[in-house]
Specification:
It is a single chain. This protein is of the alpha/beta class. The protein has helices spanning 8-15, 19-27, 38-51, 57-60, 80-95, 109-120, 139-146, 170-183, 199-214, 231-241, 256-269, 302-317; strands spanning 69-74, 99-104, 126-129, 151-154, 165-168, 189-193, 224-226, 250-253, 278-283, 296-299, 327-330, 333-335. The strands form 2 sheets. Strands 2-1-3-4-5-11 form a 6-stranded parallel sheet, sandwiched between helices. Strands 7-6-8-9-10-12 form a 6-stranded mixed sheet, sandwiched between helices. It is elongated and about 80 Å long. The termini are far apart. The relative contact order is 0.12.
Length: 342
């Protein structure tokens, strides 16, 4: 689905009728009596066939009546970054009388679509979504946009779209991590991240590469691992690095969860942190400061993400424009702990 997708408005325009008329005619079962002339019905159905129009399940879930329910869709419950942000969103919306239905997509695009369609059949008044971005395609969200479903994206967004979103400056955050490691005299800086189809991973990878080049260090593809965004993924990446002739002397992970996997392998193999290998994570989760080696991390403002996304959705539900630019990008900060101490 792209911006060129045929909409109900396109069908109505070609048939020379209103959008509501086209909707009622196309929704009616064959043989059912409806208050439109046979000529009007034929005109609408011919226009739909000519344009190859397919009614959206998302549009069918809209009623226009308020229910006081908001759908909250996240890709995983394993990463406590999302659970922390959703706690704030739920509390903020509850203050305004909204109940929240939480859905976990398990990082699967098909499940994401199914969950969104299910939520709209309740129906919900709006959606807050951290998109899966399994393929990087924004089709589902263009459908929501074209059907006037109020929604806000969190943590991840799509370039060159009008979608409202609340993200953090991941490009700058990666640069902070690399600059910090270089300041410690580290030169073989590896990176461990999730799939680059996900906008956050792509921004962090770009920030990592650009920071190295800016400081005269040539990126080495052998020192970049694209793995699942889990503790197991971090373990897999570090086991791979351990097979190299020369170990990296630093690792920048795109999440604290992956950094834990890297740390576990180092501890098992007798690789000292930070003496042999400096380690930086991303998100600064609540437990990151109490690991066996307290973890240096890029702190994302989880509370601010939750508050801002709730306020933007509430503004949209009230018919207000939240802000001039669609994307709200919040700053991050470097939190230094023992995993990179000199």
């Amino acid at each position: 689905m792209t911006r060129g997708t045929v909409t109900l408005a396109d069908v109505a325009r070609l048939a020379g009728v209103s959008k509501s008329t086209a909707s009622r005619i196309l929704a009616a079962a064959k043989g059912r009596k409806i208050p439109y002339s046979p000529a009007t019905q034929e005109s609408v159905r011919n226009a739909a066939d000519l344009l190859n129009y397919r009614p959206s399940k998302l549009a069918r879930g809209l009623t226009g009546a308020r229910t006081g329910i908001i759908g909250l869709v996240i890709p995983t419950l394993e990463d406590s970054f999302f659970t922390a942000a959703t706690t704030i969103i739920e509390a903020q919306l509850a203050e305004r009388g909204y109940n929240v239905i939480l859905s976990n997509t398990s990082g699967d695009s098909d499940m994401e679509r199914a969950k969104v369609e299910d939520l709209l059949t309740w129906p919900v008044d709006g959606l807050v979504i951290a998109p899966v971005q399994q393929s990087g395609d924004a089709g589902l969200f263009w459908e929501l946009w074209q059907n006037d479903v109020p929604f806000v994206l969190i943590d991840r967004t799509f370039a060159d779209t009008p979608f409202y979103s609340v993200t953090t400056d991941d490009h700058a955050g990666a640069g902070m991590a690399v600059e910090h490691l270089l300041s410690l005299g580290r030169k073989r800086i590896a990176c461990v991240g999730g799939p680059l189809a996900v906008s956050t991973n792509r921004a962090r990878h770009d920030g990592y590469v650009e920071a190295l080049i800016r400081n005269g260090v040539l990126p080495d593809s052998r020192l970049c691992a694209e793995v699942s965004p889990t503790e197991a993924g971090g373990r897999q990446a570090m086991e791979r690095f351990a097979q190299l002739d020369t170990l990296p002397d630093a690792v920048f992970c795109f999440s604290d969860l992956m950094a834990i996997g890297v740390m576990e392998v180092c501890l098992e193999r007798g690789i000292r942190i930070p003496e042999d290998l400096a380690l930086v994570g991303y998100a600064d989760l609540d437990y990151s400061g109490v690991l066996r080696v307290p973890l240096t991390s890029i702190r994302q403002p989880r509370n601010e993400i939750g508050l801002a996304s709730a306020e933007i959705l509430l503004a949209r539900l009230d018919g207000r424009k939240p802000f001039l630019n669609a994307e709200l990008k919040l700053p991050v900060e470097l939190v230094i702990r023992e995993s990179t101490r000199k």
